[in-house]
Amino acid sequence: MVRQSLQPTRRRVLASGAAVSAAAIAGCIGEDGGDGDGNGDDVADISEFQYDREEPDDGDRSDSLEFLQPAERDEDFDPVISFDSYSMQVANLVFDGLYEWDDQLELEPKIADGMPEEEDDGETYIFEIQEGIEFHNGDEVTASDVAHSFTAPVEEETQNAATYGMIESAEAIDDYSLEVNLEFPYGPFTLSTMAVPVVPEEVRTEDREAFNTDPIGSGPFQFADFQAGEYVELERWDDYWDDPQPYVSEIRFEAAPDDANRIAQVLAGDTDVIDTVPATEWDEVEGADGVRIHGSRSPSYMYLAFNCNEGETTDPDVRRAVGHSFSMREFVNEHLGPAAEPLESPVPPITNESGNWDFPMDEWEGMMPEYDPDQAEQLLADAGVPDDWEPRIIAPEGGPREALAERIGSRLTEIGYGADVQGMSFATLVDTYNTGNVDDYEMYLLGWTGGPDPDVYYYNLFHESQAGVGQGHFYEGQGEFHDNILNARESADQEERRELYISVTEEILEYMPVLPAYSEHNTMAAREEVKDLHAHPSVSYNPRIVSDYQNTWIDE
């Protein structure tokens, strides 16, 4: 299941499993086609599936829209506890955040009245909120509601606690201002943590269980009908406090996990919008009459990880050899086409850009291993790897990562070795990948979804404190590797953090505990009559429906 973005916990490793569901070729892209591992430098541009604004002639509209989701919801609609993307797709239309991400994944004020005042070298933040904002029940949004939204995940020990765990206290100064104190300067605070959905403290705490499935927020939509396991229906809140007012008056969410069924429904005109266009179906959807694909880059990070605890892959030269045995770029272009882009670091391009990090991406790309089977064979021979070496590679079954595992296995076979490739269910994979046991795996393929701050990637996927929690490679690091990750996390100085992350990344690329693979885009397919629809970088924000840059409507 795809899990809610921007929540750094162990369950995040499930984040990338449902987006593309089959391993067949999406389209041959690149000079060398699909038969060999050549350069394959041509990368499809997802911006071709982004469209200009489309405004209706009449502003007084009552359009209805049906949206099919690619996985079952956990059906926790209280954002304090909600932890899956598809429940949050509903909740993000019901609740407004203190801040929210725009279409470039940059935080901008929503309920907040401007950016916070920073004090105590990044340990204290003073927030002002706008006056006169109301929840759906008519209660005014106050600073106490915002403070509760910050502290409840930790106090109630929810799965979102890690996002707010550095907050020592959050207290209202008056009705429209609050003070948040951190235990230490926390680098990601102003880039991610401030995007907290605001809940009404009094209503929520009166009956948290009832609130979870019949929530009250201050967003543009409110609950109209809900049948567990079947559908959620939202209706426009006509007293919404912000502009623009949505053109859509009703939205129905249903789960349609079967890719073929979901695609068939939108192609036949039986639904309006579907989330996620599988790479295997891309050409069919793109070539269909009456349907458009909508896409956006995302902060997702897929990777090949090596067992650095036991087995032949404890040797960095063996890991480098695997990297030289195939072309990652060629594989991504061939199997995913416009649905993804190759990566050269644990930091997706949109994270680099939205956070204004200015990382040396071109230099990092030059450090990635190029396809060179002769060098791969020589490195393995020099490392003393036995001729009968057949490393076990585990991956989520039925998707492009299993296909990538098979590609690596076939290339190792071509240079005289082999591989035992095993596709697994997520439940089995999660129980297996973090054991560090060579009998379980020497390589695994997984994914992570983060945001505009690199800490979500480096701390959870590489810091020693998370070994066996969010990572299974057990990389001990060289010198100050782990100290650098922690120091970057506990610094409010972005330039200092940038230099620390550059050092960490260069070590990752040199010693290769993991090999960056690709970032999978967020995609939707919609009937052509659905106008002004734009895919958001965060999957939990889709469909955005109404914002400063879009207001979806139906051209009947």
Describe this structure in words.
Helix 8 (316-324) packs antiparallel against helix 12 and helix 15 packs across helix 16. By secondary structure, the protein is α+β, with helices and mostly antiparallel strands. Strand 21 and strand 22 form a beta hairpin. The protein has helices at 85-94, 143-155, 161-164, 201-206, 208-213, 259-268, 282-286, 316-324, 328-335, 349-354, 361-367, 373-382, 400-414, 426-432, 455-462, 481-489, 494-511, and strands at residues 63-69, 99-101, 107-109, 117-119, 124-128, 167-174, 177-182, 221-227, 231-236, 248-255, 273-275, 291-296, 300-306, 340-342, 392-396, 420-424, 443-449, 514-520, 522-527, 530-531, 546-547, 550-551, 553-554. Helix content is 27%, strand content 20%. It is built from 17 helices and 23 strands. Strands 8-9-10-1-11-19-12 form a seven-stranded mixed sheet, sandwiched between helices. It folds into three domains: 59-95 and 219-298 and 521-556, Periplasmic binding protein-like II (D-Maltodextrin-Binding Protein, domain 2, 3-Layer(aba) Sandwich); 98-206, Dipeptide-binding Protein, Domain 1 (Dipeptide-binding Protein, domain 1), CATH 3.90.76; 303-336 and 354-518, Dipeptide-binding Protein, domain 3 (Roll). Keywords: Signal, Transport. Residues 29-63 are annotated as: Disordered. Belongs to the bacterial solute-binding protein 5 family. Residues 32-45 have a biased composition (Acidic residues). GO terms for molecular function: peptide transmembrane transporter activity.
